[in-house]
Write a structure and sequence with these properties.
about 725 residues, mainly alpha, five-stranded parallel sheet, two-stranded parallel sheet, about 5% strand
Length: about 725
């Protein structure tokens, strides 16, 4: 598929989501029952449980007692203080029970330790729906629609779900499967009384481990089970207060430092627990780090680190990054990627970070608070801020590389995109202008230098999905640090991710910050209009047409003030798309004509003719619409760089216009050519739409049935809800 410089909505968008590469006339269809991809396996999202797990026998028995023959879905909340082992317990219980749930297993970290980090239900629902087989083009953007689809898809499944680190009942309720016999395990430091009121949730409070089990966990982790050391293990266990997090750090320290004795470890922890005159306070309930076993264990483990590992530990704690990779760590502490990977392994070996997925690490929030205090004490505010800035620039450079690889033909804005779009269209290997990103796998985390163009786009798109939460956090961080130029440029680099994959709540969060940041950047006056326009597409995808219209009007005004005609043309064009989606084709046509007057770019003018032709068809001006669409086809054919995808799209629109005019014979001939051309473009959504249009144009019932069958099969492969309606239509035709 050839990339586009501008954006059109084409074909049908099922649910109010805008995710296609091309944005133009929009048809919204409400799905009653969402289809899923045929043959989709049951989801298996549970992480592996902890290798060493001790006790919780009583709690497991209580849980098993709740799983009777009552068909109602069960919700169980595991509560307890930070570091008590809630997550490990939930995963251990889930591993024990998974064979009972043939519908699959779901898992999400809700990051609810603080309001600022808690993920939205919409973000989790998008991931769950994808895991259940819904194709990305048909994921709804509205959270209530996502909830409805999720409940529909889980109504006949016996699912096991783990929702870790919940912040509130409101965050959890939309994520509860509805299938009979399903079980949801929720972990939280909070009681979540709302779940008890709303769904009859049961609560199991996790106490600290008893002395015997705490000592047993220590000996398992350390590999030291000599009975003669029992007294020493019990003394260390007492220092850890029965908290599994503290026990894990202590046990791993003993495993790594083979010459460290139990007695010396207990002394070290006692010394660390004694508050000094300059303590900054800790996460313990009393506010005194001397009363917090986790802080004492972290202090002793931290003291064993080499200088570079200690620095990485400290600086990684300055922000609540959802995940840390070797390329990001390398930027943070200014070492090579292999050195950063070794440092992360060193931290993971003594439980100061957790490798929750291959090559991806995170800090427990109690350890992050400990690391942040250390950073402010050791590195100071200036060096800490400089480190955060380095990591933000790394994220920007990598995001630019991914965006330029996924959509190499679109026009970009901002200093990070230093090469003209026309050069990148012929040589998609990105160059971001940053010394920290060369477009290599080491600098970005994905390979943009080898393989076919399609392989590189696929790798870059996969990286975008994997790094989405980090990039959203990067926008928040840049905003909080007052780095306006990085804030809006990060938003610009997120364009292809959001446009193709949705995540509309994240889109709104980032680009609202981007709009405000761009307004404070006089050196790039075009940025403000750009951010308003991209925010408008997020609102359009959510079906909030009035707000989208306001955003595009603001974009046009901002671009007009700074004389940015290209941006103004895009904003006015986008305003026309909103009005076309609202069923206001006359006003849409006015916008497309106005945008045409603002640009001399041949390709942009060709696409505007396409938009205008569709608007004229919507007005019933069939002959004028056909002439305009034919002119669009000629303009596209005359471009120096062929745009075969949009040529096929214009043919499709011509076929639609002929159908609207009642000329089925002409429509059939045009759509046959459109189908042949689109088949070469790897555009399955458009292939399915064309098959349906060909069924409408078919003269004979057998031919109509054949095209309906083709459309049904294509929609089913996409997980499109449209398949159900067409199947009913085909069945009504008879055999």
């Amino acid at each position: 598929m050839n990339p586009s410089v501008r954006n059109e909505v084409t074909g049908a968008v099922h649910g109010t989501v805008v995710q296609a590469q091309h944005i133009g006339a929009l048809t919204v269809e409400q799905a009653v029952v969402p289809a899923i991809l045929p043959g989709s396996p049951p989801p298996r999202l549970l992480p592996a449980p902890a290798r060493h797990f001790t006790d919780r026998h009583d709690e497991l028995e209580r849980l098993l007692a709740l799983l009777d023959d009552d068909p109602a879905p069960r919700v169980v909340v595991l509560t307890g203080t930070g570091g008590i082992g809630k997550s490990a317990t939930a995963l251990h219980f889930a591993a024990r029970l998974r064979d009972r749930y043939d519908g699959g297993q779901l898992h999400a970290d809700l990051r609810g330790d603080a309001t600022a980090t808690a993920v939205t239900p919409s973000t989790v629902l998008v991931r769950f729906l994808r895991a259940l087989g819904v194709a990305p083009p048909y994921l709804p953007a509205d959270e209530q629609e996502q909830t409805d689809w999720f409940r529909t898809l889980t109504a006949d499944r016996r699912l096991l779900t783990v929702l870790d680190n919940a912040h509130s009942a409101a965050q959890v309720l939309p994520l509860l499967p509805t299938g009979p016999g399903s079980l949801t395990l929720v972990t939280s430091r909070r009681r979540l009384d709302g779940l008890t009121r709303e769904v009859g949730a049961h609560r199991i409070a996790l106490p600290p481990l008893g002395p015997a089990d705490a000592a047993l966990l220590l000996t398992r982790l350390s590999g030291r089970d000599d009975p003669r050391s029992a007294d020493g293990a019990e003394a260390v266990a007492r220092r850890c207060g029965g908290l599994p997090l503290a026990l894990c750090m202590a046990g791993e320290r003993l495993a790594v430092r083979t010459h460290l004795t139990w007695r010396q470890l207990e002394r070290d922890m006692a010394s660390a627990a004694a508050p000094g005159p300059d303590d900054l306070g800790g996460p313990g309930e009393s506010g005194d780090p001397g009363h917090d076993p986790v802080t004492a264990a972290a202090d002793t483990s931290y003291d064993d680190l080499g200088p570079d590992a200690a620095r990485l530990y400290r600086l990684a704690g300055l922000r609540p990054w959802p995940g840390l990779t070797a390329p990001a760590a390398a930027a943070l502490v200014q070492v090579s990627e292999p050195e950063a990977a070794a440092l992360l392994d060193e931290l993971a070996a003594i439980h100061l970070v957790e490798e929750y997925a291959p090559g991806r690490y995170r800090q427990h929030d109690l350890l992050r608070a400990h690391a942040e205090r250390r950073a402010l004490r050791v590195d100071g505010h200036a060096r800490s801020a400089a480190a955060v800035g380095r990591l933000l620039r790394h994220h920007l450079a990598a995001a630019v590389a991914a965006d330029a690889t996924v959509m190499p033909g679109r026009w970009h804005l901002g200093p990070a995109y230093v090469r003209p779009a026309r050069d990148r269209a012929t040589d998609p290997a990105p160059a971001t202008g940053s010394a920290e990103s060369t477009g290599s796998a080491e600098a970005t985390g994905f390979d943009t230098a080898t393989g076919s163009d399609e392989d590189r786009r696929r790798a870059a798109a996969a990286w975008q999905l994997a790094e989405r939460e980090n990039l959203v956090e990067a926008v928040r961080t840049a905003d909080e640090y007052g780095l306006d130029d990085l804030t809006w440029q990060l938003c610009e680099a997120l364009w292809s991710l959001f446009l193709r994959q949705g995540f509309h709540q994240d889109w709104l969060t980032t680009h609202r910050l981007g709009v405000r940041a761009a307004a404070r950047c006089p050196d790039v006056p075009e940025a403000e209009g750009r951010m308003h326009a991209q925010l408008g597409f997020a609102l359009l995808g959510l079906g909030r047409h009035g707000e989208a219209e306001e955003a595009f009007v603001s974009a046009a005004e901002a671009d007009r003030r700074c004389g940015h005609r290209r941006g103004e043309a895009t904003a006015v064009e986008s305003l026309g798309l909103v009005r076309l989606a609202q069923g206001r084709p006359e006003e849409a046509a006015e916008c497309f004509r106005a945008a045409r007057e603002l640009t001399e770019d041949p390709r942009a003018r060709a696409l505007l003719e396409h938009h205008l032709g569709r608007a004229l068809s919507g007005q019933g001006r069939h002959e004028e619409a056909a002439a305009t669409l034919e002119r669009a086809a000629r303009l596209l054919a005359e471009l120096p760089v062929p745009d075969t995808y949009n040529q096929a799209r214009v043919l499709t629109s011509l076929g639609q216009a002929a159908l609207a005019a009642g000329n089925r014979g002409r429509a059939a001939a045009i759509l046959a050519e459109a189908a042949e051309r689109m088949a070469r473009e790897q555009a399955p959504v458009q292939d399915a739409d064309i098959a349906e249009l060909r069924a409408r144009a078919a003269a004979a019932p057998e031919e109509r049935r054949r095209f309906l069958t083709e459309a049904i099969e294509r929609y089913e492969r996409l997980g499109a809800p449209r398949a159900a309606a067409l199947r009913a239509e085909r069945d009504a035709l008879g055999s």
